[in-house]
Amino acid sequence: MTLQTLDIPLCDAAATDALGERLSAAAQIGDCILLKGQIGAGKSALARAFIRARLGPDTEVPSPTFTLVQTYETADGDIWHADLYRLGDTQEAVELGLTEAFDTAITLIEWPDILGEMTPTDALIVELSVREDDHLAHLVFSDRWAQRIQQIANDA
């Protein structure tokens, strides 16, 4: 599988929200988006913008830090927002039902490294980093995402 990359500078919180909204418009059932980055890099903010783009700007989107998974019903199917930071091993991710959600929902996963070998091979990786004057979204994607990412880049 050939992987491609794209870097998108995020000059402020509005730019992070805009990226979340564009990803939301492009996402389909069966898509997995892995959100990586240090604490404070914008993972939860991006997920919140993604979910609100589908459900409306006033939708309450709490962090799943303590619940581990928050699910949202949409007309197109469910969105699962998971925070795996507190998990001890891959089996705990299986027990949450993530393997089934990979096929039946859109999954947004913060701190995805615990997934190990159960990580979907065609997942979109969005690695957020804090730079001196802004943030950066480094996207790593397969052919499944290539055309949609091109559209996202054109809309940026």
From TrEMBL:
It is found in: Cytoplasm. It comes from the Bacteria. GO terms for biological process: tRNA threonylcarbamoyladenosine modification. The keyword Nucleotide-binding applies. Keywords: ATP-binding, Cytoplasm, Magnesium, Metal-binding, Nucleotide-binding, tRNA processing. GO terms for molecular function: ATP binding; metal ion binding. Its main location: cytoplasm. Belongs to the TsaE family. This is tRNA threonylcarbamoyladenosine biosynthesis protein TsaE. It comes from Pseudooctadecabacter jejudonensis. The lineage of its organism: Bacteria, Pseudomonadati, Pseudomonadota, Alphaproteobacteria, Rhodobacterales.
